[in-house]
Specification:
The chain is an alpha/beta fold. The protein is built from 15 helices and 15 strands. It has an eight-stranded mixed sheet with strand order 4-11-10-9-8-5-6-7, with helices on both faces. The chain has a four-stranded antiparallel sheet with strand order 12-13-15-14, covered by helices on one side. Helix 2 crosses helix 4. The chain is globular and about 85 Å long.
């Protein structure tokens, strides 16, 4: 017998923070208030419901005791337990959902689900989980009492050393471990930067289209975003010089512009560095997936060209390993180390020490570099397969932008079709796409979908999803 036939409640959520008895109590109360359970109607016995839900009988009895104490149910001995007769519960008040900020409603980009084309997710099926589990078990066995205290505010020294060594070799960044600050993600990184070198009222150049959450974070810190257009060579620096020459900072994604995936050209990199040096401004380089370039070797980071100490380099493990790790890092100029140490002590929210220890071992033993190499090859194959599969079915309705790297495709919609509307329909059908217009300040511009390809394992899989998208058109 299923739960649905004996009980008006759905199975409890084992991942929820709320205790099981509270979940059961709330669901019965809602069923009574909504009329699903009527006054005088019998409810399942504690024993029967415990068997159906796979819970201890005491858990059900605790929930029933709470319901009885509040007058929702009555025990009738051999007759069982019933909803209190003549009960007139008030229906739940429907809260008014606040209107979302324009351009932010659909643009999640935060990978809190695993759906086809979900942005921000690496190839989770190809992650070396066995190696990770072995290193994790070893780190747990080696734990000492000192490892169970709060981790250093700036991150484990061993991990900072490994990150500095990796950046020297792979991204062309010459830095010392003490310049590296371990954070709990991009938001934490931006918070550190905001408190350390920026202030309320500062103007900040942003790419337009760009990453929506950067704009949102600046708004929360009471700073003013100055949108600069993006063309085939990246952010148009000359427009920034004309619009806001005294801006305090610029946030850029030079390797693969988010979301258009174009690369910031060398002349513009030099122009940006020159502007920052002349105006005592900061460049925040968000190198979220710079490792994944398919037409040539990965380009050196913008930070590698910094001779005046104006670039703050932000990297992450979320796109290389997995988002749930909640670890990122920031490289600051030598002259700013002391200031960032002070801010880190005040706002320390870095990842757990055990997680940092596992990442350290993963890097030290060479697994990190090998994983990136494998993913670079795999992503090149999956990108080509996904693009071919989509174009074979949807070629009349779309075109895919050529791009040198990255982890997602930009699929331009032909005609007057709305990217927001199609993205919403895809979500309703169990797929996840982001609308390009949600990345544009003001919400205008061309209509296109952003589709992550890293978890699409073959051309056949892409064609199957394309058929589903075709029906939505």
């Amino acid at each position: 017998m299923s739960v649905a036939k004996t009980s008006p409640i759905s199975p409890v959520d084992p991942t929820a923070a709320e205790p099981f008895y509270r979940q059961i109590y709330k669901r019965f109360r809602h069923a009574i208030a909504s009329g699903l359970l009527k006054p005088g109607e019998r409810i399942p016995s504690a024993r029967a419901l415990a068997q159906e839900l796979g819970l201890a009988r005491g858990t059900i009895e605790t929930a029933y005791s709470l319901l009885a104490a509040e007058g929702y149910i009555q025990a009738r001995g051999q007759a069982g337990t019933i909803v209190t007769p003549d009960l007139r519960p008030q229906p739940p008040v429907a809260g008014t959902k606040p209107s979302p900020v324009r351009g932010m409603a659909a643009a999640s980009f935060r990978p809190d689900s695993i759906l086809p084309f979900q942005m921000g997710l690496p190839a989770l099926d190809a992650f070396p989980r066995k190696i990770w589990a072995r290193l994790g078990a070893r780190c747990v066995r080696a734990m000492q009492p000192s490892d169970m205290a709060y981790p250093p505010a700036c991150g484990l020294q061993e991990l900072r050393t490994e990150i500095a060594a990796y950046l020297n070799v792979s991204r062309g960044i010459s830095c010392s471990p003490y310049q590296v600050f371990v954070t709990s993600g991009y938001r934490h990184t931006m918070t550190l930067i905001g408190h350390a070198v920026l202030k309320r009222g500062d103007r900040v150049w942003l790419e337009d289209p760009g990453y929506p959450h950067t704009r949102k974070m600046l708004e929360q810190m009471c700073m003013t975003a100055v949108p600069l257009p993006v063309d085939g060579d990246g952010m148009v620096i000359s427009d920034g010089v004309r619009a806001a020459p005294r801006a305090r900072a610029a946030v850029v994604t030079p390797a693969h512009q988010s979301p258009l995936c174009v690369t910031l050209s060398l002349p513009r990199r030099l122009a940006l560095l020159d502007w920052a040096a002349r105006n005592d401004a900061w460049i925040i380089e968000d190198d979220y997936d710079g490792e994944y370039r398919y037409v040539s070797r990965p380009l050196p980071a913008l930070k590698s060209l910094d001779r005046d100490g104006r670039v703050l380099y932000a990297g992450t493990f979320s796109k290389v390993l997995f988002p749930g790790i909640r670890l990122a890092y920031l490289v600051v100029p030598e002259a700013q180390v002391e200031r960032f140490e002070q801010v880190s002590e005040a706002f320390a929210t870095d990842g757990p020490q055990l997680t940092q220890a596992i990442v350290t071992a993963f890097m030290k033993e060479g697994h990190f570099a090998r994983h990136i190499q494998r993913m670079r090859k795999l992503y090149a194959e999956r990108r080509d397969a996904t693009a071919a599969g989509l174009e074979s079915v949807l070629g009349r309705y779309m075109r895919i932008d050529p791009q040198p790297g990255g982890m997602h495709l930009v699929m331009r919609l032909r005609g007057t079709r709305s990217d927001r509307q199609l993205a919403r329909r895809m979500r309703e059908q169990g797929m996840r796409a982001e609308a390009l217009r949600d990345c544009v300040m003001g919400g205008g511009g061309p209509s296109a979908l952003l589709l992550n390809f890293t978890n699409i394992d073959s051309r056949e899989t892409a064609e199957n999803f394309a058929q589903r998208i075709l029906r939505l058109l």
